[in-house]
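User: I'm new to structure prediction. If I give you an amino acid sequence, what do you actually give back? Let's try with this one:
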Amino acid sequence: MESFILNRVNLTVDNYKFARMELRNDGDLLNHFASLVFSHYESEIPVERVREIRKYIKATTPRMSIFRGDILYLISILIASLDKNIEEELIQSMFEYMNLLEEHFLEGAHLALTAYVLARYGRDRDKEEIVKKTVEVYYVLKEKYYNITQDDDYLVCALWALNDIEAEVINDFVDNVFEHIADANIRSKNGIQGLANAILLNGSSGHMYRSVEFIQQLEKRDIKIANQFLPLIGILYNINPRRNVDLVEGVIDELCDQEYEYEYYIDKGFRTIIAISIIAFCNDSEKKLYIDELLAHGILSFINSKNKSMFSEVLN
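Assistant: Good question. You get back a string of structure tokens that encode the predicted 3D arrangement of the chain. For your 316 residues, that looks like this:
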């Protein structure tokens, strides 16, 4: 394994151990998320700054605000990775976007994350116009795939709006992607849609074929991948899918060698995402825009899925 990849693995493991001690109330999934976000920027987790951001958001929102719990933990980690000078402005902009979004969508954690993304990447844009575009493309998607389009699609629709992707393009491209992704043996329709939606951000048929091949190569080697993170796969450039799968295997082995938690006490599909993220962070040619946010989106969806499963078990 190349030394620069091994160094990133080491930092990820060290950050995870640190988060497990200092942010233990966040829970294990969010500890892994924090370790990855700051491994991305080759830094340690600024725990005190994360706590200060949480305290500030709590102080400036009502007690029953959606900006509590897991979504507060996620967003504070993301904000702490950015320049401190824009922190308060970004948070206020996020609240303003949230107010506009709530006029059209259901309040919830996915909408709060969408408001953060719009504030993060739409700083110099007209807020009302961006929200209007987000709503427009969401309902284009909803009309087309009404039975599987829901609140976890808000984020990618906001990214489409930020990138000025028009409704006509969405209609044509998503159909084409859906047709080809069906060959990837992804059992979840939501997973297929999430992958297709994210691939549109890259807008390349070649990228689509490489993404599908990457997933197929993982499947051939019995490497599981969590469906909630397929949108993340959709924005990564898999220039050489087979080599990337070799690297994923190597990183997984190294993680398990270094820390028993990665081998015995973690969902294998999520572990694969950790390895994929580490490799993406190390790739100089990688388009790294939105990686952290789509990783957060996957974490949120993964937590929701786990909670639903637990609730279902209790009912049964």
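You can read the tokens as a compact description of the fold. Here is one thing that stands out. Residues 310-316 have pLDDT under 50 and may be disordered.
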